[in-house]
Sequence to fold (88 residues):
Amino acid sequence: MFSIVLPSYAGQAILIEFGYIRREEYDDARWMLHERVYYHVTDEFPALRATMMPTGVEDVRYSIKVEACTPFIKEESEIISWVFGTDK
Fold:
């Protein structure tokens, strides 16, 4: 299932110094996969690309609306065929 990796002794000391207290409930998984969606990312896929950035622009952050990505949704079988070359 999950394996827990504890930081080194020095790492633990830093965590404690900043007020971290290990609690058992931190080890519980708090998420569950609800759905897996595959997208075929093409040149038309909504994105900012490095070639679009003028010189001097850096540390750019942006969000993409999920609705703008729906035309690029593919079935898992399509992706597997494309990646592994099993198209007929």
